[in-house]
Write a structure and sequence with these properties.
Length: 682
RNA sequence: GCGCCCGUAGCUCAACGGACAGAGCAACGGACUUCGGAUCCGUAGGUUGGAGGUUCGAAUCCUCUCGGGCGCACCA
């Protein structure tokens, strides 16, 4: 694999440092200088050298003088026009602009391997409509997938379905006891099923707040019943549909999954596999995982006394493994917490953490078990989505691809679950003997919150305490949130209004397509521009805006570039290949103030690969989002500053067109990774 | 009590330990007889919550402190 241009320069510097100062540095820092007159690549190597030489010789050295010494032995690296020493000890490299434009040097190289990555995202409880908080998860996850694929990785996308949890049980309780509906009635309920469940779920929550004893008697029994159905017994599996309660659960889950997939498809988000929790139970994944865990001495313990008596627990890292549970744990007061994590309850059932460990072992191909699969959907473009199944597929069914067995995995899960995920990761790292635990990652992100004002706008009442707070997190449990489809509808409606007035000549279908593309761009960029650790405080005005730092602004830039190219093609103007120009001519056009400005755009566009690399390495799509916006700004400046079609000088015009194409292509590529389409016009 | 995240312009957010802390929004003032103004330019706005420390260099790392969020279930 060819190493990147930056890597080559680094090696050169390290080599010269070695011969000149007899010093072996492992690496040397590189940065993009803050101002163009500082060159294109800066190495603050003088400082590092001074420090290291002082450590080894005890003598103080001048960083700038050291950089100067280094400069004299660098020679003339290919692609570099000059090297300057600047500031208190920087080594600044100036790229050969014309050469670079004609044959761009690779600033970053894709870290392509043949290994399979498994990315899990979305994973919404299948009992209600998706809200904006869920969209943040899905858009982050989907963009990570696209980002990894852009760096050449093989990625398998999972959307985990917790079809046996309390949330589903609560809605089943609502249908069965509050509404007295039959399985068939639930199946045939007309209208938006996910919206119906959204309201029902809220009503169930209210009901349980008023009748707490009902929760214990009814809902928990529903939960147990659902779990029982999927737990293999000596008589084998029971068909869940045979029973009214589990039948309702099955219907709810299937109908909601269908809604969620449709919602996500609007944003261009798809999945390869939907692993269901029921199959983790019926496939006895936990039993196998438990065996593996117990083979590791001291990793898990069956408590014989204390508050966790009878449970299988995993010791917190902070506590010594072999130590018995603290004696005073029975007398724990309210303010003292037990750090250990229960994996198996005293009644023998497994907790979420236990199931998650088993599931993730399977993801890495370390469980020694597999699911059965059924094809769920097949799109016209051939893309298939599969779902796990409790039964062997009938003969003649399409055979599934090989799922699981990834070299590593990334799970997009809210940061409020960090504590839990720490245990999952700890278990996984121990069981897989993989010291590179960075590749088993919980991608934590913060929630989308609402202001009390926005909640009031939704017509939801708050307690006095909450109304005084600055922001309140979305909660499906309380029906507190912006429903995903509502927001997408609103965005598309706003965009449609604009498109219809700007382009009355287009037919309705095309107007709607463009409005859809713009709405999705606004939403996806809005969710991506914040770094993962930032709590997004939702603001209608900001989210519905198409001006400034928004997705539509990015699209508009590409549309402008495309429009110039169309006009150019139609104009019959004489066109030359950029490569046909003498490089001295290009060089002179890229000199001076004008040249600096043009070069700035060329060089920024070339750094897209660096941004992609950085975003992948940090698993932070916001890095790419911010970069793309910067590139679009720069492009718009260029667009405004230079008339391309009316440029009389053909050499200059050729250069401008070349730059426009490069920048436009770069922007389009970045948008593709963010899942944003380029409309035909805007 | 313990753990994690966050305090940067009026508001919302950026800034691999590097050179003078940058954008958008809001405000105000401008832009060629348009390759489309969903654009561009300018003005104004900052002791990076506070105090110490490490470093040639700190918004960034360490300690303390103040303020906010989230966790710490035989729920997920």
């Amino acid at each position: 694999m060819p190493s990147s241009f930056i890597q080559t320069l680094k090696s050169l510097i390290l080599d010269r440092v070695h011969t000149l100062f007899d010093l072996k540095l492992e690496d040397v820092a590189v940065e993009i200088p803050p101002r163009p007159n500082f060159g294109d690549l800066a190495f603050p190597v003088g400082f590092e050298l001074a420090k290291r030489l002082r450590e080894s010789t005890g003598q103080k050295q001048n960083p700038r003088a050291l950089a100067e010494q280094l400069r004299t032995v660098l020679g003339h690296p290919p692609g570099i026009s000059k090297v300057e020493v600047a500031g208190p000890g920087y080594l600044n490299f100036f790229l050969d602009r014309a050469d670079f434009l004609l044959t761009p040097l690779p600033l970053a190289t894709p870290s392509a391997t043949d290994e399979k990555a498994i990315v899990e995202h979305t994973s919404i409880n299948p009992n209600k409509a998706a809200h904006l908080g869920h969209l943040r998860n899905a858009v982050l996850g989907d963009t990570l997938v696209r980002l990894l694929r852009a760096s050449g990785a093989r990625v398998e996308v999972h959307n985990y379905i917790d079809n046996t949890g309390v949330q589903v049980a609560d809605v089943v309780f609502g249908f069965y006891w509050l509404e007295k509906k039959s399985k068939t009635e639930v199946q045939n309920l007309p209208g938006r099923f996910d919206y119906y469940c959204w309201d029902l779920y809220t009503r169930v929550g209210d009901y349980f707040r008023q009748n707490p004893e009902e929760r214990l008697r009814r809902s928990v029994s529903v939960l147990r019943e659902i779990e029982e159905r999927y737990r293999p017994s000596v008589t084998g599996l029971v068909n869940p549909l045979d029973n009214e309660i589990t039948g309702i659960a099955e219907v709810v889950v299937n109908r909601i999954i269908d809604c969620h997939l449709k919602t996500m498809a609007r944003l261009g988000i798809r999945y390869d596999l939907l692993p269901r929790e029921s199959e983790i139970l019926s496939g006895r994944f936990w039993e196998r995982a438990k065996e593996l865990l117990q083979e590791k001495h001291g990793l898990v313990v069956r408590e014989t006394e204390g508050r966790n008596q009878g449970c299988l627990v995993m010791r917190a890292e902070s506590e010594p493994r072999d130590a018995p549970a603290k004696a005073d744990k029975t007398s724990d007061s309210d303010e003292e917490y037990d750090q250990d994590k229960i994996l198996e309850r005293s009644d023998g059932t497994v907790t979420y953490t236990g199931k998650d460990i088993a599931y993730h072992l399977w993801k890495l191909g370390k469980l020694g078990k597999d699911f059965c699969y059924a094809q769920l959907t097949k799109d016209p473009d051939g893309q298939q989505t599969w779902i796990t199944s409790s039964i062997q597929p009938p003969p003649g069914s399409p055979s599934p691809p090989s799922f699981g067995g990834g070299a590593y995995y990334l799970s997009v899960i809210g940061s409020e679950q960090s504590y839990l995920q720490k245990f999952v990761k700890q278990a996984l790292v121990e069981l897989t003997h993989d010291p590179s635990d960075a590749r088993i990652a919980h991608i934590a992100y913060e929630k989308v919150a609402l202001t009390p004002a926005a909640i009031a706008e939704l017509g939801i009442e708050l307690s006095e305490e909450e109304a005084g707070r600055q922001r309140i997190g979305m909660s499906g449990r309380r029906g507190l949130g912006i429903k995903a489809d509502d927001l997408i509808d609103r965005l598309e409606a706003c965009a449609f209004e604009e498109v219809a007035t700007r382009h009355p000549e287009l037919d309705d279908a095309r107007q709607r397509l463009i409005a859809h593309q713009i709405g999705v761009a606004a939403l996806r960029y809005f969710l991506l521009k914040f770094s993962r650790t930032t709590v997004i405080v939702f603001d209608f005005k900001e989210a519905l805006s198409f001006d400034g730092e928004t997705g539509p602004y990015l699209q508009y830039s590409v549309v402008r570039a495309n429009s110039v190219l169309e006009k150019l093609a139609a104009s019959g103007l004489e066109q030359l290949e950029l490569a046909s120009l003498p490089s001295e001519q290009i060089a002179s056009l890229l000199t001076g103030d004008d040249g600096d400005e043009l070069w700035g755009l060329i060089y920024l566009g070339a750094r897209l690969d660096l941004a992609i690399e950085e975003a992948s390495a940090n698993l932070e799509p916001a890095i790419l989002a911010k970069f793309t916006y910067q590139l679009a700004q720069r492009f718009n400046l260029f667009y405004h500053h230079y008339r391309i079609l009316s440029e009389p000088d053909i050499a200059r015009r050729t250069l401008l067109i070349g730059i426009l194409k490069t920048a436009g292509n770069g922007l389009a590529r970045a948008l593709e990774i963010m899942g944003i389409e380029v409309p035909e016009c805007m």
